[in-house]
C-alpha cells in the first residue's frame, strides 16, 4: 500500500539529511507504529505520506514515495486528501468549522461529494466513533479525548485508504488515551484501513501494532516489534523488564508478561519498603478554591509539600491541576484559601517575590522565553533574580550540559527548552518548584533525565510539585500522589498506594508483578545478581 | 440511506413547539435592510422610536447566545452617540430655523470673520433647530441600529457559507482572520501571566517586545497548523476549468463591472443621458451574476446540509420588505405624518403605526436559535 524507495530528505540549511536512503513497504490493513527519539524524524516520515513534507515544510526530497502504486512525490496535500487522512498532533489547532457535524463534513465538501452521500457518511462516522451525541457541540467545548476522536472522524468521512496519526494521545489522560487507541484498533479491524501512527508512550500502542518502524539517525528499520525492541533506544517499561531478566521473545502486552512471571516472582527479594519519612513542610495550602465566573475549577483543595518531597498531581484534563498550581504559586487566580511558604503567602506579595517562594514551569514552557539567544536568556534571568552573573548558566549546565550559548531558544529540542525554562525558574532559588505537564513531547530517555533532575532538586531539600498524565513517569519520580477530579481531591497518599490501587493509573510493572512493585529499577535492585544480565 | 433518522431535521420530527434552528442569515439581512430602508423614508420621531423598539424586541426574542449575538447593545450606544452629536452640532452651528421661531435659550454668539458669513457659532438656540437635529439624528441612528440587529441575529459564518461558490475562498480567508482575534487575546493573557513568573515587571516598549514576540510566534504557528490542516483536508483542490472557461469567466466579469460602474454614474449624475442609468445597471448586474455562476461552476465543492429557505424565512424577509414598501408609499400619501413640521407635536396615523408594526412578525414566526447549552449530551469533563 505504501512504499518508500531510497527516500532521502534534507531540511533547507540542515547539515545532515533528516532521513537517508529509506526503504520501506507497508501492506494494506497493517497498523504500523513509528517510533524513535524526539527529533529523529518521525513527524517528517509521517508528513511525507500526504505531501505536507516537503510542500509545507520546505526541504529537498529525493527518491520515490508511492501509495497504492502511484507516486505521490510531486502532489500537494490537497490532491491527496481523498487517499490519505492525516491527523495532526494538536487537534484543536487544526479544526476548521466550529460545530462537530460541520467539521466532519468539511473534507467531503471539498471533494465535491453529493449531499446525500455526505449526510450518510457523517451519520456513519458519528456512530463508528461513538460521538453521535456530540454532533451539535462546539469543537472547543469538547474534552481532549473527544476532540481527538472528532479529528479522526473528520478525515474518515473522506474514506481514505491510509490513516496517519501523529502522537494522537500525547495530550490525553490515561483513560481518554485508552478510548482513542481502542477506536483506532477497531478501525483497523472494521475498515481494513492502513494505519501509520507515531506515539511516544509506546506501551499503549505496541500491543496493537503489526509492525514497528524505528527511526534512528536518519535510517528506518521496520519489523516485528518484539525483534526490534531488543535494542531500541526507546522502549516501554515492560520491554525493559523483559530485557532485564532476559525474556525472549520480549513480552509486548501485560498479559504475555504475566504468563511468564511466575519463576521471576519467586526469585525476587523483598519489595522496596514504603519509606515515608515525616518531612517538614515546605508548602502548606489550605482550602484552595478557584472560580472563573460560575465555574469552579478548584474546590477547597488542601495540598502539602515537604522539603525533599516530590508530589505528583494527576487527574483528567480539566480537573483543576493547572489552576491549582497557578493558585499556589500566587500569580494565578485564587478565590479563597491560604498558602504558607516559610511563613509567607505567595499570593500576598509581588510576583517578583512570589517566585522566590514558589517557582512554576507552565504547561507551555516556551512562553517564558523571549530573547534571541540562550546566553541572553540566562543573563536576563540572573538580573531579574538579583544573583551573580552566571548562576543561571551554571544551573543549565547541570540540567542539560553543553547547549551552545548562541543558539536561539526556539531552536532547542523540547527537553532542552524545558531545561532552560527550569534553569530560569531555579535562578530565583525558590523553596518549592512546580511543573505543569513537563513530560509533553519528551521521549523515554528525556523523561528519565527529567526524573533524575527532579530527584536532585528534592535531594537539595526543595519541595517539588509536578502535574502529569504519564503514569510511568509519576511512578518513577513521585513520593506522594494527589488525584483530582472536578476540582476536588479524590485520593491522595504515597505513590505506591494510590497508583497500584487504581486500574487506570497502575504502571505496567505493577500490573505484571503486583502492587508492591512500581518501576523496573525497583525490580532490578531486588533481583539476585546472577539473574540480571 | 436517507432514512437514517435525524431527530432534528424539521421533516422528520414534528416536535412540540417550534424547533430550534438558525434562521437563514439572508432572511435576517433582508428583514433588517427592509427596516433600514423604511426608516430612511421618515423623520417622524414616534415612528422611528417604535421601529427601533421593534428591532430591539426581535433581537431580544430571537438571538442565540453566540458571541456575535451580544453586539446589539454596542449599536444602541452608537445610535445614541449619533443623536447626541447631531443635536450638539445643531446647537453649535445653528441653521434650519426661520426668523420668529421660539428661542429655547441664548448662548453668547462668537463673531466669525467675513469669509465665514452665513455660519452662526452659538448664539440663539431655537426649538426648531434642536428638533431638526434630533429627528435627523434619530433617522441615522435607526439605520445603524437596524444593521446592528442583522449583525446580532445572523450567523456571519453561515452567511459566508451561503455566498456563491466563486466567493468561497475569500469567505474562508475572512472567517479564519476573524477567528484569530479571540485566540490572540488568549495568547496575550497566557504570555503576560508567564512573564510574571520570571519576575519581569517591566513596562513600556521593553514589555511590549516581551509580549509581542511570543504572541506573534504563537499566532504564526497556529496559522501554519491551520493552513496545513485545511490543505490536508482538500481545501483548494483544483477544479476542472479549461483555459477557455477561465477566459470566458474573466470576460464576463469585466463586462459586468464596466456596466455597473457606468450605470452607477448615470444614476447619480442627473445630467447624464437616462440610457446610462437603469439599463446599464441592469446589464452590469446580469453580466456579474453570469460571471459568478461561471466561476462557481469550476469550483468543485458541495455544501453539507445547506440552509434551506422555508416559510419562516419568507415571512421574516417579507415583513422587512413590507415595512420598506409601506413607508415608501406612505411617504407620498401621508407627507405630514412621515415628515412632520417642526416645531410642534409630530402627528401620527394608525396606518403608519400598523405598517411599522409588521416588522414584529419574526418574533412569532422565526425559530428559536440553538443554544450552546442545550446540547449537554456526553461528558464535558
TrEMBL record, chain A:
A Pfam family this chain is assigned to: ABC_tran
Signal listed as a keyword: no
GO cellular component annotations of the record: ATP-binding cassette (ABC) transporter complex
Database matches in SUPFAM superfamilies: P-loop containing nucleoside triphosphate hydrolases
Domain of life: Bacteria
Residue span, ABC transporter domain: 2-242, 283-511
Key words of the record: ATP-binding, Nucleotide-binding, Transport
InterPro entries: AAA+_ATPase, ABC_transporter-like_ATP-bd, ABC_transporter-like_CS, ABC_transpr_CbiO/EcfA_su, ECF_ABC_transporter_ATP-bd, P-loop_NTPase
Keyword Cytoplasm: no
Family: Belongs to the ABC transporter superfamily.
Name of the protein: Cobalt ABC transporter ATP-binding protein
Source organism per UniProt: Aeromicrobium flavum
Organism classification: Bacteria, Bacillati, Actinomycetota, Actinomycetes, Propionibacteriales
TrEMBL record, chain B:
Cellular component GO terms held in the UniProt record: plasma membrane
First-listed, main subcellular location of the protein, grouped into a coarse class: membrane
UniProt subcellular location: Membrane
Transmembrane intervals: 29-62, 74-93, 166-185, 247-268, 275-293, 314-339, 345-365
Keywords: Membrane, Transmembrane, Transmembrane helix
InterPro entries: ABC/ECF_trnsptr_transmembrane (IPR003339)
Taxonomic superkingdom: Bacteria
Topology in the lipid bilayer: Multi-pass membrane protein
Record's protein name: Cobalt ABC transporter permease
Annotated source species: Aeromicrobium flavum
Lineage: Bacteria, Bacillati, Actinomycetota, Actinomycetes, Propionibacteriales
Amino acid at each position: 500500500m505504501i512504499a518508500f524507495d531510497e527516500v532521502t530528505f534534507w531540511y533547507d540549511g540542515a547539515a545532515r539529511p533528516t532521513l537517508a536512503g529509506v526503504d520501506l513497504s507497508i501492506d494494506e490493513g497493517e497498523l504500523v507504529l513509528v517510533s524513535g527519539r524526539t527529533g529523529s524524524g518521525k513527524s517528517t516520515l509521517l508528513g511525507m505520506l500526504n505531501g505536507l513534507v516537503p510542500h509545507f515544510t520546505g526541504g529537498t526530497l529525493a527518491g520515490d514515495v508511492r501509495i497504492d502504486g502511484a507516486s505521490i512525490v510531486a502532489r500537494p496535500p490537497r490532491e491527496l486528501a481523498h487517499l490519505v487522512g492525516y491527523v495532526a498532533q494538536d487537534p484543536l489547532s487544526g479544526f476548521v468549522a466550529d460545530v462537530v457535524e460541520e467539521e466532519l463534513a468539511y473534507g467531503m465538501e471539498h471533494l465535491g461529494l453529493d449531499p446525500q452521500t455526505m449526510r450518510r457518511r457523517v451519520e456513519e462516522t458519528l456512530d463508528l466513533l461513538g460521538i453521535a451525541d456530540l454532533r451539535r457541540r462546539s469543537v472547543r467545548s469538547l474534552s481532549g479525548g473527544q476532540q481527538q476522536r472528532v479529528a479522526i472522524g473528520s478525515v474518515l468521512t473522506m474514506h481514505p485508504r491510509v490513516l496517519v496519526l501523529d502522537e494522537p494521545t500525547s495530550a490525553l489522560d490515561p483513560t481518554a488515551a485508552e478510548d482513542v487507541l481502542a477506536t483506532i484498533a477497531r478501525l483497523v479491524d472494521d475498515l481494513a484501513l492502513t494505519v501509520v501512527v507515531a506515539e511516544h508512550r509506546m506501551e499503549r500502542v505496541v500491543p496493537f501494532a503489526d509492525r514497528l518502524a524505528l527511526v534512528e539517525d536518519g535510517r528506518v528499520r521496520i519489523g516485528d516489534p518484539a525483534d526490534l525492541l531488543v535494542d531500541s533506544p526507546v522502549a516501554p517499561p515492560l520491554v525493559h523488564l523483559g530485557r532485564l531478566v532476559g525474556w525472549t521473545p520480549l513480552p509486548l502486552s501485560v498479559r504475555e508478561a504475566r504468563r511468564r512471571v511466575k519463576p521471576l516472582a519467586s526469585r525476587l527479594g523483598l519489595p522496596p519498603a514504603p519509606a515515608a519519612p515525616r518531612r517538614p513542610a515546605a508548602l502548606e495550602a489550605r482550602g484552595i478554591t478557584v472560580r472563573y465566573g460560575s465555574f469552579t475549577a478548584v474546590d477547597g483543595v488542601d495540598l502539602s509539600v515537604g522539603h525533599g518531597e516530590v508530589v505528583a498531581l494527576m487527574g483528567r484534563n480539566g480537573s483543576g491541576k493547572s489552576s491549582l498550581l497557578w493558585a499556589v504559586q500566587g500569580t494565578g487566580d485564587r478565590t479563597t484559601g491560604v498558602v504558607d511558604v516559610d511563613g509567607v503567602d505567595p499570593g500576598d506579595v509581588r510576583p517578583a517575590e512570589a517566585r522566590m517562594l514558589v517557582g512554576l514551569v507552565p504547561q507551555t514552557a516556551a512562553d517564558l522565553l523571549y530573547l534571541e539567544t540562550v546566553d541572553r536568556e540566562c543573563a536576563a534571568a540572573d538580573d531579574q533574580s538579583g544573583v551573580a552573573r552566571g548562576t543561571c548558566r551554571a544551573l543549565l549546565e547541570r540540567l542539560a550540559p553543553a547547549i551552545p550559548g548562541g543558539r536561539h531558544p526556539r531552536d532547542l529540542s523540547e527537553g532542552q527548552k524545558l531545561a532552560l525554562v527550569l534553569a530560569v525558574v531555579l535562578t530565583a532559588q525558590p523553596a518549592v518548584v512546580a511543573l505543569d505537564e513537563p513530560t509533553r513531547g519528551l521521549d523515554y530517555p528525556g523523561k528519565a533525565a527529567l526524573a533524575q533532575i527532579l530527584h536532585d532538586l528534592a535531594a537539595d531539600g526543595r519541595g517539588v510539585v509536578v502535574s502529569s498524565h504519564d503514569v510511568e513517569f509519576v511512578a518513577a519520580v513521585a513520593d506522594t500522589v494527589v488525584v483530582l477530579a472536578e476540582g476536588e481531591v479524590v485520593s491522595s497518599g504515597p505513590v505506591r498506594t494510590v497508583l497500584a490501587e487504581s486500574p487506570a493509573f497502575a504502571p505496567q510493572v505493577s500490573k505484571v508483578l503486583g502492587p508492591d512493585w512500581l518501576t523496573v529499577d525497583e525490580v532490578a535492585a531486588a533481583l539476585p545478581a546472577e539473574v540480571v544480565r | 440511506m436517507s432514512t437514517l433518522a435525524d431527530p432534528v431535521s424539521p421533516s422528520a420530527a414534528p416536535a412540540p413547539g417550534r424547533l430550534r434552528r438558525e434562521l437563514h442569515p439572508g432572511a435576517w439581512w433582508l428583514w433588517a435592510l427592509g427596516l433600514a430602508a423604511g426608516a430612511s423614508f421618515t423623520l417622524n420621531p414616534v415612528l422611528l422610536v417604535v421601529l427601533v423598539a421593534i428591532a430591539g424586541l426581535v433581537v431580544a426574542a430571537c438571538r442565540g447566545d453566540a458571541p456575535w449575538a451580544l453586539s446589539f447593545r454596542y449599536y444602541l450606544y452608537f445610535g445614541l452617540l449619533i443623536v447626541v452629536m447631531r443635536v450638539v452640532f445643531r446647537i453649535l452651528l445653528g441653521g434650519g430655523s426661520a426668523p420668529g421661531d421660539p428661542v429655547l435659550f441664548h448662548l453668547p454668539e462668537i463673531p466669525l470673520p467675513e469669509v465665514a458669513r452665513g455660519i452662526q457659532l452659538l448664539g440663539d438656540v431655537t426649538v426648531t433647530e434642536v428638533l431638526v437635529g434630533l429627528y435627523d439624528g434619530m433617522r441615522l441612528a435607526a439605520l445603524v441600529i437596524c444593521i446592528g440587529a442583522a449583525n446580532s441575529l445572523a450567523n456571519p459564518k453561515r452567511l459566508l457559507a451561503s455566498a456563491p461558490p466563486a466567493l468561497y475562498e475569500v469567505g474562508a480567508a475572512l472567517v479564519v482572520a476573524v477567528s484569530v482575534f479571540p485566540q490572540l487575546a488568549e495568547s496575550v493573557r497566557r504570555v503576560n501571566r508567564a512573564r510574571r513568573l520570571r519576575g519581569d515587571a517591566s513596562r513600556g516598549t521593553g514589555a511590549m517586545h516581551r509580549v509581542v514576540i511570543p504572541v506573534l510566534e504563537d499566532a504564526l504557528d497556529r496559522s501554519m497548523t491551520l493552513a496545513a490542516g485545511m490543505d490536508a483536508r482538500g481545501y483548494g483542490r483544483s477544479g476542472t476549468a479549461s483555459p477557455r472557461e477561465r477566459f470566458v469567466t474573466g470576460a464576463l466579469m469585466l463586462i459586468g463591472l464596466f456596466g455597473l460602474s457606468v450605470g452607477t454614474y448615470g444614476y447619480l449624475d442627473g445630467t447624464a443621458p437616462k440610457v446610462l442609468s437603469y439599463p446599464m445597471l441592469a446589464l452590469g448586474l446580469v453580466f456579474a451574476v453570469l460571471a459568478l455562476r461561471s466561476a462557481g461552476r469550476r469550483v468543485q465543492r458541495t455544501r453539507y446540509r445547506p440552509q434551506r429557505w422555508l416559510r419562516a424565512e419568507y415571512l421574516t424577509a417579507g415583513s422587512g420588505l413590507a415595512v420598506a414598501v409601506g413607508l415608501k408609499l406612505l411617504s407620498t400619501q401621508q407627507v405630514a405624518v412621515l415628515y412632520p413640521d417642526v416645531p410642534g407635536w409630530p402627528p401620527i396615523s394608525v396606518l403608519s403605526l400598523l405598517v411599522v408594526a409588521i416588522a414584529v412578525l419574526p418574533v412569532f414566526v422565526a425559530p428559536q436559535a440553538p443554544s450552546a447549552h442545550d446540547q449537554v449530551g456526553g461528558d464535558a469533563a
